């Protein structure tokens, strides 16, 4: 099952049109996004990791006057971001190997980080710490408990994985983050399990 994690990049490249067409725009994430933004300074530069086509997450962050850099492994989805939001900075890249010259005031990985394998997640959390300025906010979604799950996008199997909450807490602490909140299966957010943390000064 774990080998399916290697298919994620090609799935979102080959099925970009379908995914973008069916991605909900109701902004059920708004309450969490607002909490995230309260932890960022007013002129925060935010890194949207796995930004997809930019709607609705990056669109909302931009509408709140924030500077957004989006990174996604799907070139077709990044092209949509550039067409829709030319005021942003959009890059094709893999979150497992992303590098930037300067850190950010906010990092968000909504419904993207959980596509990585267990070991890749363990390696990327320290990278979050390197990409976050002191005081920066970090928000990402996971599963409510340790395990793997398989969804579908068109005719392809879509891999998801989650570490145990205790392991996320340990990884985040060692990467320099304090946990602000963790809500598993949040009923007010479509059942998403959401982590909100802040980089220690």
TrEMBL record:
Keyword presence, Transferase: yes
One Gene Ontology MF term: methyltransferase activity
Enzyme Commission number(s) of this protein: 2.1.-.-
Methyltransferase domain mapped to chain residues: 46-135
GO biological process, one term: methylation
A UniProt-annotated Pfam family: Methyltransf_25
Main enzyme class: transferase
Keywords linked to the UniProt accession: Methyltransferase, Transferase
InterPro entries: Methyltransf_25 (IPR041698), SAM-dependent_MTases_sf (IPR029063)
Protein known as: Class I SAM-dependent methyltransferase
Species annotation: Rhizobium alvei
């Amino acid at each position: 099952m774990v080998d399916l994690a290697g298919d994620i990049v090609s799935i979102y490249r080959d099925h970009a049109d379908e995914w973008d067409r069916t991605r909900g725009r109701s902004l059920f994430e708004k309450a969490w996004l607002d909490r995230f933004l309260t932890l960022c300074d007013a002129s925060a530069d935010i890194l949207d990791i796995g930004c997809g086509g930019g709607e609705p997450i990056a669109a909302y962050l931009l509408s709140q006057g924030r500077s957004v850099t989006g990174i996604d492994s799907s070139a077709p989805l990044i092209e949509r971001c550039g067409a829709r939001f030319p005021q942003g900075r959009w890059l094709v890249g893999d979150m497992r190997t992303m590098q930037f010259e300067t850190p950010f005031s906010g990092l968000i990985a909504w419904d993207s980080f959980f596509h990585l394998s267990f070991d890749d997640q363990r390696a990327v959390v320290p990278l979050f710490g390197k990409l976050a300025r002191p005081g920066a906010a970090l928000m990402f979604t996971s599963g409510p408990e340790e395990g793997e799950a398989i969804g579908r996008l068109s005719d392809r199997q879509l891999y998801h994985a989650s570490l145990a909450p205790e392991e996320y807490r340990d990884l985040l602490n060692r990467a320099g983050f304090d946990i602000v909140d963790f809500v598993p299966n949040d009923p007010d957010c479509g059942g998403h399990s959401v982590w909100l943390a802040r980089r220690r000064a």
